[in-house]
Specification:
There is one protein chain. Helix content is 32%, strand content 22%. By secondary structure, the protein is α+β, with helices and mostly antiparallel strands. Helix 9 packs antiparallel against helix 10. The radius of gyration is 24 Å and the shape is elongated. The model has no long low-confidence stretch (mean pLDDT 96).
Length: 389
C-alpha cells in the first residue's frame, strides 16, 4: 500500500487524515511506505486527504527516514515532545481515520492501542475506522493473480498425488499414520518449490471434529479401512508475489461412502454453491459485505439440520507472505460481524464445515472476485473420494 493508494481511498471518505502508530516495524503498511528502514521507536504516520504526509519519529530513527522525501519528518527526543508534535500535526483536522473496529471484533483492523486512540480523542478528533482501507491490502495485482493460479494448479496436483499415494498404500497395507500422509504432502510441496506457514491437516473422523487438529510425530492417529479422512492443505509458490492456495478435501477408506457421510457432504456442496451464486447474483449490481455471504451459506447448513455443528466462519481472506490468512474481508457473521466490502481482485477461502461429536468434515475452495463476478479457483470437490473403489 502506497501513499497514493491511501489518498485515493481518503478522497471517497469523510475522514481528512489517516493516522497510525507503529513500533518496531509491526504495522502492515510500514514496510510498504518505508522499505528497508530500521525504525525501533514509536512512530506516527499521517497521510492527509490533501497536503504532505508526515512522520513523527524519534531522533534515533531519523537517519533512516531521510531517503523518503515524500514525507515531512518531525523529530522528538522525549515523550512529552512526541505528544506535543502529534497535537501540532493534527491541528486543523477534525475527522481522523485510525485502525479501530467496533467493539474490537475485527482483529486484523483493531491495531491501534487504547491509549493512543484515547489520546487522539482527547484532542477533540472524531475517529473513523480504517477497516476498508486495510482490506485493500489484500488486493491482487497481475503478478499475484498469475501466482494464485499457479498455486492452485500445483496444490490440486499434490492433492491428486496424495490420493494416488493413499490408494497405493491401501492396496498393499492395512494402515498408515496421519503424520506419514502429512509428510508426503510436504515432500511434494518441496518438489514443486512451494512453501507453507504450517504443516497440512490430516485427520481421521474423530480428530477431524477439531477444525485445527494437526498431527505431529509424537501425536497422531492411524488411518485404517473404514475411516473418514479430512485433508486441509495450503501452500504458495516460493516467489516474491506468491499467493496461497488453500483447499480441503474428503475421502473415505473403502469402496462405498456411507450414507451418513455422503449426505452431510452434499449439504456442504450445496452451501458452497449457494455462496458463489449469491455473489454472482449481487456483485453486478452492488457491493457485497463479508457477513452477507456467511449468512447465505450458514442458512443452507442449518436448513439441512447441521447448523449446531458449523462452528466457524465460512471463509477468510487469502494473500501471500508469512500467513495464508490475509488482511482482507473475511466471510464471517459468526465469529465476528465482518461488514467490510469484498473488494475487486481479492481472494478468499470458502469452507463450510460440519463437526459432530463423532466425525468432522469440511469442503474448501478459493473464490476470486473481479468486482462483478466470483470464480472458484480450481473448482470444488463434488463428492467424497472412495479410495478403494
Amino acid at each position: 500500500m502506497q501513499c497514493k493508494d491511501i489518498v485515493s481511498f481518503l478522497s471517497r471518505s469523510e475522514a481528512e487524515l489517516y493516522l497510525f502508530a507503529d513500533y518496531e516495524m509491526r504495522h502492515p503498511f510500514i514496510n510498504d511506505l518505508f522499505p528497508k528502514a530500521f525504525l525501533t521507536r514509536k512512530v506516527f504516520v499521517g497521510i492527509p486527504k490533501q497536503g504532505q504526509p508526515f512522520v513523527i519519529a524519534h531522533s534515533i530513527d531519523e537517519p533512516f527516514l531521510t531517503p523518503f522525501k515524500e514525507f515531512k519528518v518531525h523529530v522528538y527526543h522525549t515523550w512529552q515532545e512526541m505528544d506535543e508534535l502529534v497535537e501540532n500535526c493534527l491541528y486543523g483536522y477534525k475527522k481522523v481515520m485510525m485502525d479501530v473496529s467496533e467493539k474490537g471484533l475485527l482483529m486484523r483492523v483493531a491495531l491501534a492501542d487504547y491509549g493512543t486512540v484515547d489520546f487522539i480523542k482527547s484532542l477533540g478528533k472524531e475517529i473513523f475506522s480504517s477497516k476498508d482501507l486495510l482490506s485493500m491490502g489484500a488486493i491482487l495485482d497481475g503478478g499475484n493473480i498469475l501466482s494464485m493460479n499457479k498455486a492452485m494448479e500445483l496444490n490440486l496436483k499434490v492433492r491428486d498425488e496424495t490420493i494416488a499415494f493413499l490408494r497405493d498404500v491401501f492396496s498393499r497395507l492395512d494402515s498408515i499414520s496421519e503424520y506419514e500422509v502429512q509428510q508426503f504432502i510436504l515432500s511434494r510441496y518441496k518438489a514443486y518449490d512451494m512453501v507453507t506457514d504450517e504443516p497440512p491437516i490430516v485427520a481421521i473422523a474423530n480428530n477431524a471434529n477439531n477444525p485445527h487438529y494437526t498431527p505431529s510425530q509424537e501425536v497422531h492417529s492411524i488411518i485404517t479401512k473404514g475411516d473418514l479422512l479430512l485433508v486441509d492443505m495450503w501452500a504458495r509458490p516460493d516467489e516474491e508475489k506468491g499467493i496461497y492456495s488453500d483447499i480441503t478435501w474428503m475421502s473415505y477408506v473403502g469402496t462405498k461412502v456411507p450414507e451418513i457421510y455422503a449426505k452431510a457432504f452434499q449439504t456442504l456442496r450445496k452451501a458452497v454453491d449457494a455462496g458463489v451464486n449469491f455473489l454472482n447474483g449481487n456483485l453486478p449490481n452492488r457491493k457485497v459485505q463479508g457477513f452477507e455471504v456467511d449468512q447465505v451459506v450458514r442458512r443452507v447448513v442449518e436448513k439441512d439440520g447441521y447448523g449446531q455443528w458449523f462452528t466457524h466462519r465460512t471463509g477468510h481472506s487469502i494473500y501471500g507472505g508469512n500467513s495464508c490468512h490475509g488482511p482482507g474481508t473475511n466471510i464471517d457473521d459468526y465469529e465476528s460481524h465482518d461488514d467490510r466490502y469484498i473488494y475487486p481482485n481479492t481472494l478468499f477461502s470458502h469452507e463450510p464445515g460440519i463437526y459432530t461429536p463423532e466425525w468432522g468434515m469440511r469442503l474448501e475452495t478459493n473464490v476470486f472476485t473481479d468486482g462483478k463476478t466470483a470464480t472458484e479457483v480450481g473448482g470444488h470437490q463434488q463428492e467424497i473420494f472412495a479410495l478403494l473403489s
